[in-house]
Amino acid sequence: MTTAATVTTTATTTAASTTTAVRAEEKMIVFEDVSKFYGEILGVNRVNLSIAPGITSLVGPNGSGKTTLMNLMTGLLKPTRGRISVLGTSPNDPQELFRKVGYCAQFDSFPRGATGREFIEFYLRTHGATGRAVENLTHQALERVSMLEAADRKVAGYSKGMRQRIRLAQSIAHNPAVLILDEPLNGLDPMARAEIIRLFRQLAAEGLYLIISSHILHEVDMMSDSVVLLNNGYVVAEGNVHGVRDEIVEQPMQILIRCDRPQALAARVFEQDSGAVVEARLHDDRQGLFVKTRRPDDFYLLLNRVVLDGDIRVESVAPADDDLNAVYQYLISSDGGR
Amino acid sequence: MSSTIDSATTSQKGAREMPWGLWVQQTLSILSQELRKNFLSRRALLLYLLAALPIFLLFVLAILPPDDDEFQNINGLSLVFSLIYNTLILRAVVFFGCAWVFMNLFRGEVVDRSLHYYFLSPIRREVLVVGKYLSGLVTSIVLFGLTTLASLFMLYFPRFSSESSRYFFEGAGGKQALIYLGITTLACIGYGAIFLIVGLFFRNPIIPALLIYGWEWINFLLPPLLKKASVIHYLVSLMPVPMSEGPFAVMAQPTPAWISVPSLLIFTLIVLALAGYHTRRMEISYVGD
User: Fold this and answer.
1) Residues A209 and A315 both lie in one domain
2) I need a surface site. Which of A12, B40, B247, B264 has the fewest CB within 10 A?
3) Looking at the DSSP assignment, which residues form a beta bridge with residue B210?
4) Is residue A138 predicted with pLDDT exceeding 70?
5) Which residues does residue A104 pair with via DSSP β-bridges, in sequence order?
6) Mean of the pLDDT values across residues B284-289?
7) A117 DSSP assignment
8) Does any domain span residue A16?
């Protein structure tokens, strides 16, 4: 009797935890030990990711595996190994998947002879939308990417930026929960970039999952909630930019101190240092000092003491490499990368 | 704004409860998109030229009729048409026309790098196969059906207009024309399925298409059992005016229509199922295409 009760309790607990796990998976984009090989060539290897709502950027050089990850997520590629789930749906089920997902791929090609409007309308009809709904959703999507005026022209006559925007309009037209964007800012002028980044932020604020690949690190840095850094098919780091930076404990942090007497500051720092400073270097304009340290907290205490002495006027102190570019360079260097 | 989204969502919900309704709608969307491409794209030019070829030749024959006996009376013309239909229309125009139309359904999109738009829409891959196949079927049947009818007209009417009217509207001609039309339709169904799958499986489908062409041409030399492993055997069996296959032909009983027609249809269904299975596993990278 006791044994039976224990078994029942265990079974109930197991069932409950399985249900919780399933529910959690329905709210995430999950990669579980995913690998993709193109014959002998590695696409991505042993990727484990859980992507939450907000803007997640995939960053890495050409061939690092960004597009492969996106194509795996959308079923354009099948994983050699592992499992992918997009809000609880397998990429092998396009009928269900693309109700939730919009994908703006990098392929710069279109169905022959279509206008921008027809391109979007056809896509919406495949969703089961008809008549007025198709017209309204198309209008909204075109409006969001500022393409209403050019909508009835043939796509073949569009500029690169317009083609990019019409693809974006198509991918958001059915109001997906997940938006996957492969280099979405390519070909856009600065004004359009700012406008589209604003749109991404707005969509993320509405609770969408935005997965964006880009090699323009500055823009990624500005708009991303979290980043996934890729190199040679491996995820080398993931998390928010600052969090990723903190994880690289071995890599000294570089701090720029703007002051009136940087040489004197360098001498004072080395005089009082107890091993926190690795390197100090004058800024090119001789109005600042770069300091590399493995123990930033100790260094800031040291700097406070120097400032309190009063003979050096410090204007500003800021991390010089706490941006994505610096993080990425660390990670893919021979020390940090795989 | 929300009302438009709601109406689309309602439509989707309804469709999910009755997937057949959604699949039909998706198939019709694919059909209209593909038909426009098939008929109006630059690729269609070659198709129009091919379809017009027999009509042009028969037009020349109408202006400069040969002195042979077959051309001098309406009964002889039925033999002439059987020859022209068998050798030119069926084995060349319909065969290569279907090869062009159906191989391009998928291969053409891979070359144009636009197949991913279909793969990124909420369409089951099997529905995509059916939609595309139907579009190829409508295109080829319309074009080559018209070729068949226009060729008949061009052979008979310019020289024997009143006799031809009687022959087609009161005599055996009308039934023959319908049978030829039926054979053209069946040819499009059978060859269409074959070339659809050739376009799916082969990066360069020209060589397999030529091999199939060779196989279909040497059909008259094959032993009876092997003859059955071809489309042309079933089509020739249905011809209203049988044609001699020459002194070297290996004779075989023609397959009756009640076997020929279902055999071709069953074959087509099997091939389409295979195509659906293949597209479910298909990946898109466009690298090397």
Assistant:
1) no
2) B247
3) none
4) yes
5) A181
6) 66
7) H
8) no
Cα(B154)–Cα(B88) distance, integer angstroms:
15
Assigned domain for A153 exists:
yes
Are residues A210 and A261 located together in one domain of the fold?
A: no
Nearest to B5 among A95, A123, A137 (CB): A137
Answer yes or no: are the C-beta atoms of B71 and B84 closer than 8 Å.
no
Residue among A78, A130, A140 whose CB faces B281 most closely? A78
Does residue A194 share a domain with residue A263? Answer: no
Q: Which residues of A touch B112 (CB under 8 A)?
A: 109, 112
Using CB atoms, pick whichever of A77, A103, A129 lies closest to residue B120.
Answer: A103
B47: buried, middle or exposed (CB in 10 Å: 19+, 13-18, 0-12)? buried
pLDDT in tens, A157-207: 998 889 989 999 999 999 999 999 998 887 777 788 888 888 899 999 999
Q: Contacts of residue A124 in chain B, CB cutoff 8 Å? A: 8
- Cβ atoms of B83 and B239 closer than 8 Å: no
Question: What predicted TM-score, i.e. pTM, was given to this entire model?
Answer: 0.81
Predicted confidence band at A54 (pLDDT cuts at 50, 70, 90)?
A: very high
Q: What is the pLDDT of residues B124-173, one digit of tens each?
A: 999 999 999 999 999 999 999 999 999 999 998 887 888 888 888 888 88
Q: Closest Cα of chain B to A127: distance in Å? A: 6
Question: Are the C-beta atoms of residues B162 and B241 closer than 8 Å to each other?
Answer: no
Tokens of B67: 């002195």
> Alpha-carbon distance A163 to A108, whole Å?
8
Domain-ending residue, one of A239, A268, A283? A239
Any idea what the CATH number is for the domain that residue A177 is in? 3.40.50.300
Instruction: Give the residue carrying structure tokens 């107890």.
Output: A274
Q: Are residues A291 and A192 in the same domain?
A: no
Partner B, chain A 76-95, Cβ-Cβ below 8 Å: 76-78, 92, 94-95
Q: Within 13 Å and on the Cβ side, how many CA atoms surround B269?
A: 5
Select from A173, A167, A197 the least CA-distant residue to A185: A197
Contact B4 A174 (CB under 8 A): no
- Would you say A230 and A46 are in contact if contact means Cβ atoms under 8 Å apart? no
Domain that holds residue A316: 247-332
Give the chain A residue nearest B40 (alpha carbons).
A113
Question: Residue A147 in contact with residue A107, Cβ under 8 Å?
Answer: no
Contacts of B116 in chain A (CB under 8 A): 76, 105, 107
Q: Decide: A126 and B121 in contact? Cβ < 8 Å.
A: yes
Residue A2 located in a structural domain = no
Same domain, A203 and A324: no
| ipTM beyond cut 0.85 | no
Q: A173 and A77, same structural domain?
A: yes
Domain ranges of chain B: 18-280
* CATH number reported for the structural domain that contains residue A264 in this entry: 3.30.70.100
DSSP single-letter state for residue A115 = B
Number of structural domains (chain A) is 2
The closest of A83, A93, A104 to A30, measured between CA atoms, is A83
Which of the listed residues A239, A261, A278 is the one where a domain comes to its end? A239
Report the range of poorest mean pLDDT among B30-34, B42-46, B242-246: B242-246
- Asked whether residue A234 falls in the same domain as residue A257, the answer is no
Q: How far is CA A39 from the centre of its chain?
A: 28
Q: Give yes or no: residues A280 and A297 share one domain.
A: yes
Partners of A44 in the β-ladder: A36
What are the DSSP calls for B98-127, one per residue? HHHHHHHHHHHHHHHT-HHHHHTSS--HHH
